Amino acid sequence: MPTRSERWGAFKQSPFLPALVLVFILAAAAGLFAGSYTYSMAKPTPHRIPTAVVDAPDTARGKAFLDGMEKALNASLEVHRYDSRAAARQDMEEQKVFAILDVTPSGGGEGKVTLDLSGASGASVAQVLAETAPKVGKAVGVPVTVKDVKPLQEGDPRGLAIFYISLAAVIIGFVGAIQLSVHARGLNPAERIGFTVLYALLGAFVIAAVVDWWLGALDLPFVESWLILALTMFTSGMVFTMFNTLFGRWAMIPTWGLMVLLGNPSSGGAVSWPLLPSVLGHIGQWLPPGASVNAQHTAVYFGGHQHAFPFLVLAGWALLSSTVFWVWRHRHPGGRVSVPAHAGA
Q1: How far from chain centre, in Å, is Cα 219?
Q2: Which of 151, 210, 237, 275 is the most buried (most CB within 10 A)?
Q3: What is the b/e burial string over 249-276, where b = at least 16 CB atoms within 10 angstroms of the residue's CB?
Q4: In what order do the strands lie in the sheet with 112-117?
């Protein structure tokens, strides 16, 4: 009759222990997955909306409208004042402001309001402003004209296509690395990095081709979008490879936590960052999914105004992950043992 310690020792050596651990991990992951997306997306609330206000002769109704907007949005307007509409429009192209508020005197001197929105900067933010402005205008008795001067493309009326293609690149990126670890364990470190580059380039090309050439959902700047997706996919693959080096068979836990539970809800792709909880909005810009969405969004809608920051974030994660893998490559599962030529003689 085996003792309790012997039974426990046998259980630890059996496949039942990791299977039982996985049951609890998957249950927790399911709850966290639902919770993270619900927390960030179920009830988007304005926190800080950069808004340009073009200086004009002050009117009582103009001030009342601005005060009414801040009250209706819980003081979430971050006002930037400009001397001209052209200067404000330039900063809209740079994505520094989401809307332009121009209060001009009407014939009677009381003033009227023109609110220019940038749907391409964030459909959810534009919707909040477009719904709020007429109500406030009616309440304070000032006519309001709302225009979307930077609309989304017809094939992407909700602005979600960029989020979906970035999500595809992130998930296929680390799934590809998992498959290399399972089905191509014999790859040496340099070969593993090389094949990660290869599937990233080919996979990104297919994503862009399907979305643009086949479905016509987005009119992409093809080469730029392709390379952004490829860098995203490579970064995601190397993040898993890094964690696989550090944590072995449990690498999926930190990868999923970083890239999916935290990275995707905070990316600003499904809900614009001014409507995200403030902490998530700041963290998301420093993670690969958020950087990918930012770079792709600017490439598609604000060509000529691309920023270096999201590329530096992606490159930084790729470099960090590749360096950790390379330095501790002896700990990574798989690889081939080099056999001297004379050993086979």
Answers
A1: 20
A2: 237
A3: eebbebbbbbbbbbbbbbbbbbbbbbbb
A4: 77-82, 49-54, 99-104, 112-117, 144-148
- DSSP assignment string, 113-168: EEEEE-GGG-HHHHHHHHHHHHHHHHHHT--EEEEESSPPPTT-TTS-HHHHHHHH
Mean pLDDT for 176-201 is 93
How distant, in Å, are the alpha carbons of 181, 230, 242 from that of 318?
A: 18, 12, 10
Written as six digits, the tokens of 287 are 């993670």
CB 147, CB 114: distance < 8 Å:
yes
**Dist CA 34 CA 167 (whole Å):** 16
d(CA 252, CA 233): 16
Convert the pLDDT of each residue in 68-93 to its tens digit.
888 888 767 888 888 888 899 999 99
pLDDT, tens digit, 9 for 90 and up, residues 201-244: 999 999 999 999 999 989 999 999 999 999 999 999 999 999 99
Alpha helix locations (H) across 184-268?
189-209, 222-247, 252-256
pLDDT band of residue 49 (cuts 50, 70, 90) is: confident
CA 241/CA 270 separation, integer angstroms:
27
CA pair distance 244, 174, nearest whole angstrom? 11
What average pLDDT does the chain have? 85
Q: How far apart are the first and last CA of the chain?
A: 53
Please count the residues of the chain. Answer: 345
Judge whether residue 342 has pLDDT over 80: no
Whether residue 335 contacts residue 307, with contact meaning beta carbons closer than 8 Å, is answered with no
Of the two residues 57 and 74, the one the predictor is more confident about is 74
CB of 269 within 8 A of CB of 167? yes
Query: In what helix (H) or strand (E) does residue 315 lie, and over which residues does it extend?
Result: helix 309-327
Nearest-angstrom CA–CA distance, 336 and 322: 19
Are 17 and 11 in contact by the 8 Å Cβ rule? The answer is yes
Cβ–Cβ under 8 Å, residues 287 and 266: yes
